[in-house]
Design brief:
The complex is a heterodimer of chains A (423) and B (239). By secondary structure, chain A is α+β, with helices and mostly antiparallel strands. Chain A is built from 13 helices and ten strands. Chain A has a six-stranded mixed barrel. Chain B has 239 residues and is an alpha/beta fold. Chain B has one domain: P-loop containing nucleotide triphosphate hydrolases (Rossmann fold), CATH 3.40.50.300. Helix content of chain B is 32%, strand content 29%. Chain B has a six-stranded mixed β-sheet with strand order 6-7-8-3-9-10, with helices on both faces. In chain B, helix 4 crosses helix 5. Classes of the chains: A alpha+beta (423), B alpha/beta (239).
Chain lengths: 423, 239
Amino acid sequence: MDLAITTKLVFRTLLARKGRSFLTILGIVIGIAGVIIIIALGAGAKSLIIGQITKLGSDLLSVQPGKSNEKGPPAQLFGIVITTLANSDADAIRESGQVPHAKAVFGAVMGSVSVTWQNRTIDTNFMGTEYSMPQVINIPIASGQFFSQQEGEGNANVAVLGATVVDELFSNTGVNPVGQVIKVRSASQTEAGGIPLRVVGVTKKQGSSLFLDLDDQVFMPLAIGQQQLLGIHYLRAIDIKVDSPANIQQTINDVTNLLKQRHHIRTEADVDFTVRNIADAIDILSTVTSALSLFLTSMAAISLIVGGIGILNIMLATVAERTREIGLRKAVGANNSAVRNQFLLEAGTLTFFGGIIGIIIGVVASYLISLVMRYLGYDWAFVVSLGSVVLAIGVSILTGIIFGLYPALKASKLNPIDALRYE
Amino acid sequence: MEKLIRVENLKKEYTNDDVITPVLHDMSFSIAEGEFVAIMGPSGSGKSTLMHILSFLDRPTYGLYEFEGRDTKKFDDNYLATLRNERVGFVFQSFNLLARTTVLDNVKLPLIYSKKGDHDELAKKALESVGLSHRLNYYTNQISGGEKQRVAIARALVCDPAVIFADEPTGNLDSKSGNAVMHILQKLNSDGHTIILVTHETDTANHAKRIIRIRDGEIISDEKVQNRTIADGERDLVK
């Protein structure tokens, strides 16, 4: 009995019971769609995180005030204001020679601010920072330039605008923001006016990030943000670029020792700062994502097993229902393997098409999810790997064969006499 | 005439939970090519068991069964399937046609398991010989009982078997349709096909040329039919 005829036979049988065939494979469809979606989501999340790494640079260290345990969030997140990180700490890291692998360093403060240009006012974020910031964090400039060392250290009244700020403040005016004068006013300053700043540069749009939105930001020299806008004398962060990823651990140790010494700290309990390695944080996130998608994939795999049991059930019912047909086939010359193959092929065909439908649903759903994520501003890649599709097809056919084997063997071993008499 | 079937001291027992039930005792007979034999007996006599053994659906417990001069004991299950396909045709009391399937496809069923080519042509030829050329593409639920049994005969014929086994072929039919079926069997026999008919009705058995009567698993008589009934089913065969 050749394959072409068997296949034709199988298709005819399955199509004669369309409704039942569809319900039979529903479990497989859901399982496969689940696997595809979860693998795609995992890949999308990973690409998002990797995108963040390249944006921030994996050789970045960040010193934040306040102690926090290794994996926990910085104390600042809980609204605790810690004032121990000083401008001189940043200078010491840069100049003391005790942190030889620090390639570039900047100290920064952050806050929210009202920005006025002519009669337009918007609310946005600001960073008081040092001219060296672009050496640490990649800030692509669309026009003009980042403020210079002279402007930065001299606390010149200059600003660099993020792309979103430009879009909102200068929309539909056709005016080149570079050279324009804006006025900034912190939320705590109630009197009119504000600090006039000349725009020297505009950044390129980068898309939002899990860590920092560089588009919705006004960058200005440190002292302007720190003293004039916030009226404080400490830093919110010191970011350090390490010359090579290999030296990250060394640099963490160097910075920790230097700051302990400067802050006169003798015991671990007194440590009032945290040195964070962004690559590590991302590694942890990445591990969590992988673990989560493995976990979810195995949940989906369980639904495949459930779907397979559905196949087993229906195939057993089919064999019982078609006992007379099996007897007849044997009487007219079908041997055991021909009967077995017919039912195996039936189960395999069912689950194969279940797999195909599941893949289509999974791919469409993953695509829709990626559209939603992009609409929300995340740099979300739509990744459906060929590997996951091949895996899904393989698993679905295998499910059919594994769960179809027992019913098929049962059918093949039926005694033709009993089968013909079966009512 | 060549001996097609030779049975010597054939016995069949069924074992169920260590209880041995003998069904056939010590049967010996032979059937030559071209014969039309009725195996007759009341229900429980063992006639169906005998037919199952002769048609390779079952095996004897003891004794010799030679088919076309060869001892069947040595044949494995796959070869028995091949014999059922190539050398034997079946006609059942309850037709056993596939539902939701056309007449033509039903007749083609044995060809699926054979090495023969040109399935359509062979099936059409078989249907023509039972007068059903006009029903090729009908579904089996669209034709009458008599026509169903004629489809079954066409299916039995399609692989050109050495012998056709008909198990109560008229049992589910009215007398007119039954007559047509018997007519076809007689016609096939006169064309040279060997036919073995299993029945419990004397009227039906009288269509054969020879009757083997069995009771309680033993042959009680084996004789030629004296006043053979010739079925006149010609009218039913006309389109």
